[in-house]
Amino acid sequence: MAKVTEKSLKARCTELNMGPLRNTTFGIRANRLGAGYTVELIYRDNTPPQILVEGVAAAEAAAAVEGAAAGAAAVQVAGLDKPEFVTRDTFVRQAAERCPKCATKDIFPAHLSVEKGIITQKCSCQRCGLNWNSIYRLDDYEIAVTAGEV
Predict the structure, then answer these.
(1) What is the count of structural domains for the chain?
(2) Cys staple from 125: which of 57, 60, 99, 138, with CB 3.0 to 4.6 Å?
(3) Which 3-state string (H, E, C) describes the chain?
(4) Does one domain contain both 63 and 44?
């Protein structure tokens, strides 16, 4: 396997954007930013870019680019060219700060319900009108330290 360089990564993105991704509603971009690379899906409409990976090594960025190309091929075979919603992994990685459909931060978190270590929060998007539940699971606890105990 050849060493991945910034030049080869950008060339591969151009090759994909001009070839297999040409008839989709998105392209792919890889940039080197300080300590690592960022790979994004760039939509041809007004949808904000979707970061696939950030701060990774060149080989990891190349793997993300190839994964996106393979995913685009699968989506095209299915007859769609843009997934309707982000993946659960992306939603969690974005810390539930964006709408899972249109990716805006103009969301309204509402009612919380708690049951057996799971908190469910009703949310709605002010831009596209989507309603969903964000789910939070208890994974640890921390004892509060007050000034008198120190």
Answers:
(1) 2
(2) 99
(3) CCCCCHHHHHHHHHHHHHCCCCCCCEEEEEEEECCEEEEEEEECCCCCCEEEEEEECHHHHHHHHHHHHHHHHHHHHHCCCCCCCCCHHHHHHCCCCCCCCCCCCCEEEEEEEEECCEEEEEEEECCCCCEEEEEEECCCCCCCCCHHHC
(4) yes
112: domain CATH number? 2.20.25
Confidence band for 37, pLDDT divided at 50, 70 and 90: very high
The whole-model pTM stands at: 0.50
pLDDT digits (tens, 9 = 90+) for 47-79: 788 888 889 988 898 988 888 888 777 666 655
Average pLDDT of every residue of the chain = 83
The residue range of the domain holding 45 is: 6-77
Residues 6+ apart with CB under 8 A from 35: 55
Task: Mention every residue, 6+ apart, whose C-beta is less than 8 A from residue 99.
Answer: 105, 106, 107, 125, 127, 128, 130
Flag whether 110 is in a domain.
Answer: yes
pLDDT at res. 82: 53
> Mean pLDDT throughout 111-128?
90
